[in-house]
Amino acid sequence: MKSRYDDAAAPTEVLQLRAYTSRLLGAEPSLVLHGGGNTSVKHTAQDFFGEPVELLYVKGSGWDLASIEPAGFAPVRLDVLRKMARLSALADSVMVREQRAAMLEPSAPNPSVEAILHAVLPPAWVDHTHADAVVTLTNTPGGEARVRELYGERVLYVPYVMPGFVLARAVYELVRERDLSKLEGMILSNHGVFTWGDDARTSYERMIRLVSEAEDALAGPRRARPLAPHRVAPDPLALASLRAAVSRAAGRAMIARFDGSPEAAGFAAREDAPAIATRGPVTPDHVIRTKAVPLVAGTDASADVAAYADAYRAYFARNDDGSRTMLDPAPRWALWPARGLVAFGASAKAAGEVADIARHTIACISDAEALGGWAPLGERDLFDMEYWTLEQAKLRTGGAPPPLAGKIAFVTGAASGIGRAIARELGRQGAAVCGADVRPSITEDFTGPGRLGVVCDVTDAAAVDAAVRACVEAFGGLDLLVCNAGDFPPSAPIEAIEEAAWARALELNLGGVMRAMRAAIPFLERGLDPSILVIASRNVPAPGPGAAAYSASKAAATQLARVAALELAPRGVRVNLLHPDKVFDTDLWTEEKLRLRAEHYGLSVEAYKRSNLLGVEVTTDDVARIAAAVLGPTFRTVTGAQIPVDGGNDRVV
Ligand SMILES: [Zn+2]
């Protein structure tokens, strides 16, 4: 690991500089992952009255070192924190309250749970990470001797103590009589590493140096990490079953993220993988996201997850003193022997974070195994961490989850118009969305967590199958299918219909719906509150002259959806239809085209847009909101329904 410190880029203002080197630490995933680690600086500022006050600026809860700004540091009065360290006991809730009360800025974030520990270390700059390499060394039999041999007298060694007040108190006792200027840092067994210095660069570069030395010590074991020859694909149906079983155990829809990288597949191919993967996490800080152990997936997802949940309940009963409320018993990641890893989360982002932690975990386990054995913290300490109120608080994101959180949707024709609006609305309501479209731009339209764009022509059966499979491989399953792709062929009276235009209308508007359903049904059957929505047309109940191919193909698609409602109801899949009228806020309707159509009916453009019973213009967002409602839990008792979205039409009502 190399120092990323750049004199030219380093700010001079103290908090800016504190944020800068914190971000340098955050840029190394093998130092800190997703909110792990914390940093501080001691600095004298002026209070409201202009009087000097000694403060500890320490990372605030909810901030990530990778992206922290000066506003992410909580300014706490140093004398109060140091006084706290001298107490013989201090309840966590009282500690949090008193730390808040001692802040110079009441609106600053809550100080890190390790604030007192930072305060009792005399040097001005203090950096703390959960570096993989250092923790791996301590998570082996004889870890303490290994650390002492590696670093000699340059670091303090602290046996594992639960973070928070107890750890701060223990370190205070260790350092009060010591001259820390002779030391570069301290190693917290099974937890992480602290470094310090009189300036930002010294503290940061000591961290890089100590971690690099640990990495060098692990160079041999690292060469023994198993690597599969190539990326492994999941069995999509088995993945969907696993995700459904985990979601049911969790009591809510979860996204599953499969990792079949050569590293993950190589680890999963080890014969001893089920034994070594289930010994415990790298650092107890991970437990709140990953639980203490992963599931080992077998061939029966329901039975496997049920057995995991039973074991979790037993673990809770063994360790609970009667004061805790059990969390859901679902696993957060799984070892899939011979295939790879699967991470689970309430959102695609959360699943991605767990996947990152799992990937680091298997690397640490492999290294430790090559060094004599993976020996992480024991169950009791992990339980204390998992059920520590201050850790639980980190997971509370505030407010109820959005209505479609954890759901997985597949939308055809998602690059424009109604399809794009529906995909956006489903995403806004919390669903992970795979957008399929014949336009190549779809891959750029759908990026970021919970979004996948797939180029797909719905007239090509193999392409549709592949697109649905890509969605399942990305998010773990499929719950909501929106059959929207379609086109309006050139208007023609029946006697003038061209053979090719007729065939294409049926291929696209009818065949496209059938192909999407056929590909999706095996996954929808394994989905959570699964539902299909077919976007038909106002032309079905109220056809117009000159649109025979369009109306006939949409009417046939309607009949197909009605049959699907009959076939799929016993399997718990709902199928409904929308019949939208023309929507004008799409690229299809140029001003020129609008003017011509309005003229054709002898109307102004405004009147033409509102030519319905309610006199309202129907927009893509209107259709999208209704689509999301019909797909979602509000309509859980409705199937086979045809809903006009047309402002009211006297030929339809
Ligand atoms: Zn820590």
Q: What's the mean pLDDT score? A: 95
Query: What is the number of E strands?
Result: 18
Total discrete domains? 4
Number of discrete helical segments: 25
SS-based structural class? alpha/beta
Output the radius of gyration: 30 Å
CATH superfamily of the largest domain: Class II aldolase/adducin N-terminal domain
Q: How do the strands of the widest beta sheet line up side by side?
A: 3-2-1-4-7-6-5
Q: How would the global form be characterised?
A: elongated
What small molecules does this complex bind? zinc ion
**What is the CATH T-level topology of the largest domain?**
L-fuculose-1-phosphate Aldolase
Low-confidence stretches: none
Largest sheet: 7 strands, mixed
Question: What percent of the residues sit in helical stretches (DSSP H or I)?
Answer: 40-55%
* Name of the CATH class of the largest domain: Alpha Beta
Instruction: State the distance separating the first and last CA atoms.
Output: 70 Å
In what range is the share of β-strand residues? Answer: 5-15%
